[in-house]
Amino acid sequence: xTEQNNRWVLVAxxxxxxxxxxxxxxxxIGLPTTAAGSGEEALAVARDDIPALVVIDVELxxxxxxxxxRELREAYGExxxxxxxxxxxxxxxDEVAGLLLGADDYFTKPLHGDRFLARxxxxxxxxxxxxTRSALTPREEEVLGLLVEGRRTPxxxxxxxxxxxxxxxxxxxxxxxxxxxxxxxxxxxxLRDNIAGRPHSTNPR
Length: 205
Prior knowledge:
Layout: E1 9-12, H1 16-27, E2 33-36, H2 39-48, E3 53-57, H3 65-76, E4 82-86, H4 92-100, E5 105-108, H5 113-126, H6 138-148, H7 153-160, H8 164-178, H9 183-193
Parallel strand pairs: 1-2, 1-3, 3-4, 4-5
């Protein structure tokens, strides 16, 4: 992404016209969008690069909008803003269900542009900015690199010749510095921003 701070919005909707409308609206506040026509495509896009905000049509399929929301929440926690939109499910109980299932906001189609953008701006204000490589020490970068490889804490400790307690401390520091809520989210941030170092030493520092 080329936009300042690498922030962008994922729009998951099977309707091309709706995707175009949202793209134009979000473009008014200087953010690019990436479109997905299915739940599977949306999850694939989000795995490659973490969005600043996600807009999901409730009628999305393969998998459902609710499943996409659940998987994104598991990966990135509560700081990722997720918005549901719908043309057919417009009753109050539909909105309540969407919010209970993890959405931060719920809009009906056709969208009211100014209202949509006003609420989106508020959500974006809480969305974490991309992390920087300088936030981590060289050792923390090594540990993060091992997490990216799928290694567990005992394996990391053995590889780096440190105690499991020290490895856990490094992981805690990494999560704190990256603003991550889980190791999975830290790995996602590392892949997005290319901040994981390659382990190059088995001697403790």
